[in-house]
């Protein structure tokens, strides 16, 4: 333990070995908050605290897993296994399963993901004959979600005239009725949505004092990371659980509070002192993550916010490179800039793809970046898009599995009752839904007892319904002995899912088959992993629990080497050597939807602070002058956030239209910088060429006397240009047949032929690797060797 404590600075050590009492660490990005939490847990254990008595709440399950692994290296895996560690949702889902019957839920309740909630809300809107353009399901869902996170139950809603009034004013007078129906349907289906996991935990802890006491006694030590982003519901859970022993340690940074739109309440961190007696407050000031340039630039941004706690953040790290600011003409060019910069860095510094992250404000921005990365064969992975488990074919498989555990699960049933097609039509399903509501039973029960009901369904269809019931029941029997992999393998075969996708035959169908295969492989891993890390059997129920709360980030096993693409929201707590923050444009970042009030704008600024502080070595800020949004090309202006950074920390590179013919950056492999899109946007009247420095590329310079001049360079020349930035006479050489040349991508080769004139001169070159190529000298980055 001593060894690990000695790896902390003094300011970090103090909260780490402060064993008892309420405490808060408020500190800027990269100052070691998460590290302190981790080492503190190991310290508590080394001091004899039972891991069963420690509850640690993190922002993602991945963060929890990493923490656990780190702790395992300090205190040993068998001890670390017993820690209660995870996100609020995953930890309290576990507790709810144990206590479910008190709330009238089965312990095998399903967790509805957002897709399930959306589908249920949509069908309720339809059943109630409401206008779906006024009652947009996503808006309705987010309304219901915010009620739940503020602990406003259906009953509380109907007792609050102000809420009813507000929804009526928003032309949605039936919102309360939808809320009521939604809650009842979830209950009947034995399902909880994500918000329920917190709401029901609160209900459990307030309605049952003995349960509260049980968990207060269990969690003698509570630690919460990213405390600035807890919502009201989470806040109340923590407060209730910590109330008895008050050994509560929260860490956070008010400057990184970025989830207000989802109900996070920054005052939770600001008011912590008021909630407990004798709160010890700790500050960490030294940043270990980033260079001086990055730390100082980030400080200069956050200073602009009025609502903030004063903090000092400094670093002893190197000055580092200045932050590169790059302007592009279009989003396509922006993507190309990012891709080529990654490519250059990889070559120059021999770093893996995983050293790079590309962060954006909205998921829609990833497309242009992806295109550019693909062109250069740079492997990447998008996080937080449609997660693997939400893909249609995967959800189909999972729906069958969910039915095995909980046949009342309405959304799962509706999904697969007629997929693969088995002749159970829409009308039949509608009738079943109505009957189930009438009998106050699940659809599955109605199906099972179809002969005893008065549902109008012909006998042929009744037979099909009963076949379906029998099939699910046979799986339930199998589930008693088989592990999740064996079971799923059997299910995908016998339901006809596999043959359904095989029959499809299209590339999409093949991709779906592969995904199902990946799911099955994942299950195998899961079975093994559960036995090792968690001491359980790896059965279906455990698997479904894991999947329901898995985010994309969690699925990452860190085994593949790829560039990470994600929204800034998702990047919280992470760090990468090289970070690109793209799309720094007004109305995009800050978002057009968040500029109405000062507090919204300040949240956007905090988001920018989070983005920039992810970078260890080098940050790039990019923006485009025009961008495709909602299918249209719109003009854009640079984000105010760029201007807000103290200029001394910035390296504002030559805008792309000025350097597009700079062979140092754009030649050949960069030749795609002259996309048709860019050419279209290239208005010569607006573009300032640095004519004096780049005479060779001035329009009309096709002079016969110097056809080859200025097209080829030597290593010496290149070095000079790199060192001085002056590219005068860069190409003051002639190229002749027989010359040996070096190309940035194809390596060395011999010039076989030269043809054409002026800007169109081409050379035929035989490369060692890649064979004979004809290259336009204007773009080919050639060195005579
Ligand atoms: P964020 O606010 O972004 O969540 P944080 O305050 O949680 O950041 P950490 O992620 O714990 O900061 O630490 C940032 C980086 O600095 C990590 O790579 C960590 O290992 C390193 N670090 C922290 N403290 C020290 C230290 N005393 N010596 C060396 N490295 C350290
Ligand atoms: Mg952290």
UniProtKB/TrEMBL annotation:
Q: Where are the transmembrane segments?
A: none
Residues where ATP binds: 27-34
Q: Which InterPro entries match?
A: DExx_box_DNA_helicase_dom_sf, DNA_helicase_UvrD-like_C, DNA_helicase_UvrD/REP, P-loop_NTPase, UvrD-like_ATP-bd
Q: Which reaction does it catalyse?
A: ATP + H2O = ADP + phosphate + H(+); Couples ATP hydrolysis with the unwinding of duplex DNA by translocating in the 3'-5' direction
Q: Give its E.C. classification number.
A: 5.6.2.4
Q: Supply one GO CC term from the record.
A: DNA helicase complex
Q: Which GO terms describe its biological process?
A: recombinational repair
What SUPFAM superfamilies does this protein's entry cite? P-loop containing nucleoside triphosphate hydrolases
According to the entry, every stretch annotated as the UvrD-like helicase ATP-binding domain falls at 6-291
Q: Which CDD domains match?
A: DEXQc_UvrD (cd17932), SF1_C_UvrD (cd18807)
Q: Which residues form a coiled coil?
A: none
| Gene Ontology MF, one | ATP binding
Pfam family of the protein (one): UvrD_C
The chain positions of domain UvrD-like helicase C-terminal read: 292-573
Q: Which UniProt keywords apply?
A: ATP-binding, DNA-binding, Helicase, Hydrolase, Isomerase, Nucleotide-binding
UniProt lists the family membership as follows: Belongs to the helicase family. UvrD subfamily.
Family matches, as PANTHER family: ATP-DEPENDENT DNA HELICASE SRS2, UVRD / RECB / PCRA DNA HELICASE FAMILY MEMBER
State what protein this is by name: DNA 3'-5' helicase
